[in-house]
Batch of 2 targets.
Target 1
Amino acid sequence: MEKAHFLFLVALVASLATASSSTTNVVARNNTNDHDLDALLAFKAAISDPQNILPTNWSTSTSVCNWIGITCNRRHRRVAAIQLPKMGLVGTIPPQLGNLSFLVWLDLENNSFHGNLPTQMVHLRRLKYFNLAFNSFDGSLPTTLSNATMLETIRFGTNLITGYLPQDWSALQNLEFLDMENNQLDGPLPRSLFNVSSLQIFSFTNNTLSGYLPARICDHLPQLKGLYLSNNEFSGAVPAGIGGCPRLQVLSLSYNNLAGNIPKEISNLTMLRVVFLAPNDVQGQIPADIGNLTNLEQLGIEVANLTGNN
Ligand SMILES: *[C@@H]1O[C@H](CO)[C@@H](O)[C@H](O)[C@H]1NC(C)=O
Ligand SMILES: *[C@@H]1O[C@H](CO)[C@@H](O)[C@H](O)[C@H]1NC(C)=O
Ligand SMILES: *[C@@H]1O[C@H](CO)[C@@H](O)[C@H](O)[C@H]1NC(C)=O
Ligand SMILES: *[C@@H]1O[C@H](CO)[C@@H](O)[C@H](O)[C@H]1NC(C)=O
Ligand SMILES: *[C@@H]1O[C@H](CO)[C@@H](O)[C@H](O)[C@H]1NC(C)=O
Ligand SMILES: *[C@@H]1O[C@H](CO)[C@@H](O)[C@H](O)[C@H]1NC(C)=O
Ligand SMILES: *[C@@H]1O[C@H](CO)[C@@H](O)[C@H](O)[C@H]1NC(C)=O
Ligand SMILES: *[C@@H]1O[C@H](CO)[C@@H](O)[C@H](O)[C@H]1NC(C)=O
Ligand SMILES: *[C@@H]1O[C@H](CO)[C@@H](O)[C@H](O)[C@H]1NC(C)=O
Ligand SMILES: *[C@@H]1O[C@H](CO)[C@@H](O)[C@H](O)[C@H]1NC(C)=O
C-alpha cells in the first residue's frame, strides 16, 4: 500500500517534469528550477559560438549548475552567476534571460553580442553586477530598472547604445560604478542621477551628451572618486560645486564646450590625482592653491587665454 502510493507519486512527479519541459531530451534537473534551464537554453539558442565552447559544455545531460560559466547558489541551486567574458560569443540576449530571478552576476564583457537590451532584464531584482562592456549592443537603454535596485555595477561601455540616459535610473540607490563610455548617448544627464549618493565612478567619456553640469554637482555625491565626462558636448561653466566631492581623485572634463574660469574650489580636492580640463574654452587663472594638491600626478589644463601666475 505504502509502496504503491510512493510509485504513483514518482510517476506523477516524472510526468509533471516532462510536461513543464520545453526540451524532449532526458534532462537531469535535480533542484535547479526548470525556468532557469529554459532561460539558459533560450540564451544558448541565441548565441553562435565559433569556438564551440557551449555546444559541448552546455549539455542537458548534466545540471546547468555544472555548465561552464554558470554558478548556482548553494541554498536553492538556482543560477546566481553567468560569467562568459572574452569567449568570442556572437549573439543577442533573449528576453527569457529576465526569468533568471536569482541572478546576481552577469558578465558578458568583450564578446560580439549585438541587438537591444531586452526590457525583461528589469525583472532581475537580485542583480548586483551587470557587465556588457566591449560588445556591439545598440538601441536605447531600458527605460526602467527600478526593480533592479540591488545593482552596484553597470558596465555598458564601448557599445553602440543611443538615446538618453533614463530618468528612472536614479532609483538605483546602491549603484557605485556606472560606465557608459564610448557609446552614442545624447541629451542632458538627468539631474536626479547626481542624487545617487552611492556613486563612486561616473564615466560617460566619449558620448554626445549636452547641457549644463549642475552647479551643486557634489551635494549628494559624497563617495565620488572619478568623474569622467571628456569628449562630450557639455556647455556652461565648470561648476564651483566640484569642490564639494571630498574623495574625488580623477576629474576629466576635456573636449567639451565648457567656458568660464577654473573654479578655485578645485584646490579643495586634496585626493585629486588627475585633472583634465583641456581643451575647452575655459579661461582665467590657474588657482594658486592648486599647488596644495600633493597627490596630483597629471594636470592637463591647456587654455587658450591663460593668465596664470607662475
Ligand atoms: C569545453 O569544450 C571544449 C571542446 O569544445 C573542451 O575542450 C573543454 O574541455 C570543455 N571545457 C569544460 C570545462 O568542460
Ligand atoms: C544531483 O544531485 C545529486 C546529489 O546532490 C548529485 O550527486 C548528482 O550528481 C546531481 N546530478 C546532476 C546531474 O547534477
Ligand atoms: C520567460 O520569459 C518569457 C519572455 O520574457 C516569457 O514569455 C515567459 O512567460 C517566461 N517564463 C517564465 C516561466 O517566467
Ligand atoms: C578582448 O578580447 C580580445 C581577445 O579575445 C583581446 O585581444 C582584447 O584585448 C580584449 N579587449 C579588451 C578591451 O579587453
Ligand atoms: C516591480 O516589482 C513590483 C512588485 O514586485 C511589480 O508589481 C512590478 O510589476 C515590477 N515592475 C517591473 C517593471 O518589473
Ligand atoms: C568614441 O566612440 C566612438 C563610437 O561612439 C568610437 O568609434 C571611437 O573610437 C571612440 N573614441 C575613442 C577615443 O575611444
Ligand atoms: C535630490 O535630492 C534632494 C535632497 O534629497 C532633493 O531636494 C532634490 O529635489 C533631488 N533632486 C532631484 C533632481 O531629484
Ligand atoms: C572646501 O572645503 C571646506 C572644508 O574642507 C568646506 O568647508 C568648503 O565648503 C569646501 N568648499 C567647497 C566649494 O566645496
Ligand atoms: C593652501 O595652502 C595655503 C598655505 O598652507 C593655505 O593658506 C591655503 O588656505 C590652502 N588652500 C586650500 C584651499 O586649502
Ligand atoms: C585673449 O583675451 C584677450 C582679451 O580678453 C582677447 O583680446 C584675445 O583675443 C584672446 N586671445 C585668444 C587667443 O583667445
Target 2
Amino acid sequence: MAIKIGSDLFERLRHRGVSEVVSGIFARESIELVDKYGARNYHPLPVNVARAEGSRVWDSDGNEFIDCIGAYSAVSHGHLNRFIVETAEEQLRKLSLTSRALHSSELGLFLEALCLYTDLDKACPINSGAEAIETCIKLARKWGYSIKGIPAEKAEIIVASGNFHGRTTTIVGFSSEEAYKDQFGPFTPGFKLIDFDNLKALDAAITDQTCAVLLEPIQAEGGVIIPHSGYLAGVREICTRHKVLLIWDEIQTGFGRTGKRFAWQWEDAKPDLMAVGKALGGGIYPVSAAVGSNEVLELFKPGDHGSTFGGNPLACAIGLAALAEMVTENYADLAESKGKYLRAGFSSLDSGKIKEVRGKGLLIGLEVNSDVDGSDLTRRFIGEGLLTKETRHNTFRFAPPLTIEMELLESVVEKVGRALRDC
Ligand SMILES: *Cc1c(COP(=O)(O)O)cnc(C)c1O
C-alpha cells in the first residue's frame, strides 16, 4: 500500500486523473487508509462501494447490494438519478459558486420552488441538516425576544428525549444520548427535554419563556418511533394556544419519505418553521434549508446569519431538479405503496425473531428480539447482498430509494427472511 500512496501521489492524480488512481485501490487498502488517516468517528459496514445506480451499489470486488440504507434518506431519488446528474453537469459548465455576496437566478428560482413545495413563505438556504436546525434555533430565539417579548437571554426551546437533530455542540447538548455528549460539554443552555409522544408533558413544560418546540414527527434515528395518531395535530394545537413556534425537523422524514410530502401533513400540523435537507440534495450534493412563515423568516437582517456555500448556484440547480423530479414522479405516492408492500412482506415472514415491524411510507423499522445478535444479523444481511444498519432499540432501518423497483423489494423480503432464519 505504501508503494502506491507514495510521494508522487499528487503527480499521479494530476496526470492520470483522480478517477483512475482511485480505481487502482483495493477495498482492503481503502479501509486501511481510512483507519490510518481518518478520525474514527464512524463505524462503517465493511463494504467499499465503488459504483452505484438506482437502488443498487457494487463494491470494488464487483459484489452487488440492494441499498436499504439510502444514505439515511438522502438518496430518495436513487443513486445518480439521470435528470439530476444532467442538471448538475450542465450547471457545472456554467456557474457553480458565487457566495451570497452576489445574486444568481438559480437561487431565486430555487427559493420559490422550495416555498411552493413546502407551502411555506420564505426559506434560508444552507448546506447540512445540522446547520438547518441551528438556523431554526437562531430564528426561534430572535422571534422569542422580538415578537413574543421574552426577557433577554431567557428564551427556552422544548425538545424530546430520543431526539436526533445533528452533531453540532449546541445540538448534541440537548440530546438524551449520553454517548453523543460525553466529554463534549459545556453545552448551550436554553433547552428543556420532555418525553416524546406525550402531549400532557408538552403542555406542562411550556412557560412564558418558551419560544419554540422542536420535534421530529417520527424519530428515525431513535429507532423509527412513530407517535400515536393525534400527536402531531395535538402539538400544533398546544403551540398555537401558548403562542409558541412549532418547528418540525423533517430532514429525514421529508420529501415524500413517509407517504406525504412532509410527515406533518398526515395530521395537517403545519409548522411555523421547518428544517429540511437530505433528499433535497438529490443524492449528489448537500442542500438544506430552514423554511417557514414570513413572520419568522423576516426577522433575519443582513449579517444575522450565513454560510459561504449556502444557496450556491450548483446546490440550487440540483435542489430544483430534485424537487421537480419528486413532484412529477409522485414520490410521496411511490413511498406509500412501496412502503405498504415492504411492511406487509416483513410482517408475513414467519420468524420468531421479529418483535415488531413499524413505519410510515418507506421509512421502516424492523425490530428484532433483544436476544438476536445484531452484528451477526448485519453480517448475514451483507452476505445476502442487502445493506441496512441497526439504529437504537434493536431496530434495523429500511429507507431505500423511493424509486426502488418492485422486483428488488421482493428480493429484500426474501433476503431478510433468509438472514433471520440463519442467524
Ligand atoms: C440527518 C439528520 C439531521 C442532521 O443532518 P446532517 O446533514 O447530517 O447534519 C438532523 N435531523 C434529522 C432528523 C436527521 O435525520
